[in-house]
Amino acid sequence: MTFRTIQLVILVLLLFNQYYCFRKITANTLKLKRTSAGFISLMVFVLCMNVPLIILLVWSPKIIAATKLQTYALIYPFYVWHFGFFLAGLVLLIIGIVRLPVITGSWIAAKFRALLAKRRNGAAEHRVHPEERRRFLRQGVTVLVGASFTASAYGAFRKDKYESTSITVPIKNLPETFEGFSITLLSDVHSSVFMTKEMMIGYADAVNNLHSDLIAVTGDFVNSQVEEVYPLAEAFERLRAPHGVYGVLGNHDYYSRNVEEVAKRVNECGIRLLVNEQVRIEKDGNSLYLLGSDDIGTYARAEQAFDRAAAGIGSGAPKVLMCHRPYFFETAEKRGIDLILAGHTHGGQIVFARFDDEVFAPARFASKYVAGLYTIGNSRMYVSRGIGTVGVPVRLNCPPEITKITLTRG
Prior knowledge:
The protein is α/β, with parallel strands linked by helices. It starts with a helix and ends with a strand. The protein contains 10 helices and 14 strands. Helix 9 links the parallel strand 7 and strand 8.
């Protein structure tokens, strides 16, 4: 399936979902007739709101920068509109699936009661649809739509309210001189109109203020366009750490279709990219190895990338691996990697509910590792929620994150 085909499929699904929600609203909540002026006016407004969607998905114009006024007056309302309908459609779908057995059972029971009544009275029982049921349905749809758009607007407003997280991770065979060695993890920047140069400067200053020994940036520097790397490079050239600033590429860096230029600018701004290679971090004659793998999509490629990155390192030496995607934790654990630093999932970005360490989010269907610290044997992996957004500039129940990781002897 080509990229253009995927775009068209997404466009059709979004338009169908919006039409379905529109019919629910006009029929059940507003009770508008199709020939009424109100219905026609609302239909024209909905069509106008969908023109930018068609332009974005079919024409794909390059929008690199916008003023605050343009962003908040023109761009954010468009995304909030469509994401609000997406949430409403998703909830209606879930309700429909849950109600299906109930409706089926009610239909069977009604048919059975009608049959009994016909045998007793010689006539079918007349079914009554009380007005209370209609009113409840209208109120339910109204509340659903209102809650969906409120959640969308709130998620857009809160998407940049980041958290600074601190954790301690035990490392087997960690030299005594590296006790308390700290790494600041930053991931999924997604430089774009929604992650401006000014915002990235703020994040860079926040990272520097943590005063870590080393800084690791685990991919997705840009969103989808190569031009987005230039404001990122200007903002992140201020990153400083005693033992260096390192990074790896993510899948969105490849979506730019010019990953060489992205990598060049990232390296030039002071973030040294590790592409299936290693760097030896030395302190008082002792060593800690930092590994980096290129963005990988299959387990076979992961094995090859990890083997190349760890080549020549003794089995007992402490190793920290930067890998954009968290899917390959087991593969890294089998190779004696002590700590994996990953991102990619955005912590779910849109999280509907949490159950202990589990999250109910679309990202959960792609990876069982979504956010936080995971353990297999002597290996640990920390999956960052990242700082940027993808798809829609909205975060729900999942704030951006900068993480300071302190190593201790395991």
